[in-house]
Design brief:
Shape: elongated
Number of strands: 7
Strand content: 25-35%
Number of helices: 4
Oligomer: single chain
C-alpha cells in the first residue's frame, strides 16, 4: 500500500511513491476530508485503508471513530526513516540510474572484450 510523496520529498529523494507506515505524516488530497493533515495511526491492510489521527467522525453515542482513507488519496509529507526505508529509497532512487548509464555499451568496452 503506497502513497505518493509531496513535491518537496520527491525532489529530495528522487522517488515518486513509498509504502505507507505508521507514524508517517500525510495530507489528504481527495474526498470529503481534503486538505487535512495528520499522522498515520493505523494501516489496515485487510481493508486497504489508512487511519489518520485527525480524520475522525462522531458516532451517535458520542464516541469518535477513525475514518479509513485509501493510500492513493493521501500525500506523504514526512517520512519516518528506518534502516529498511533508507534501503528502499536508495534502491528506488531514479537519479542514480541515470548517472550509471545502465545498459549502455561504449566503443571502449567493445574493444576491451575483443
Amino acid at each position: 500500500m503506497s502513497a505518493p510523496l509531496s513535491k518537496e520529498l520527491r525532489g529530495k529523494h528522487d522517488v515518486r511513491a513509498m509504502p505507507v507506515r505508521k507514524d508517517d505524516e500525510v495530507r489528504v488530497k481527495r474526498g470529503a476530508h481534503k486538505g487535512r493533515e495528520g499522522k498515520i495511526t493505523q494501516v489496515y491492510r485487510l481493508k486497504w485503508v489508512v487511519h489518520v489521527d485527525k480524520v475522525q467522525r462522531e458516532k451517535a453515542n458520542g464516541a469518535s471513530v477513525a475514518i479509513g482513507i485509501h493510500p492513493s488519496n493521501l500525500e506523504l509529507t514526512k517520512l519516518k526513516l528506518t534502516k529498511n526505508r533508507k534501503a528502499i529509497l536508495e534502491r528506488k532512487n531514479r537519479s542514480g540510474k541515470k548517472q550509471a548509464g545502465k545498459g549502455k555499451v561504449t566503443a571502449a568496452a567493445m574493444q576491451a572484450m575483443d
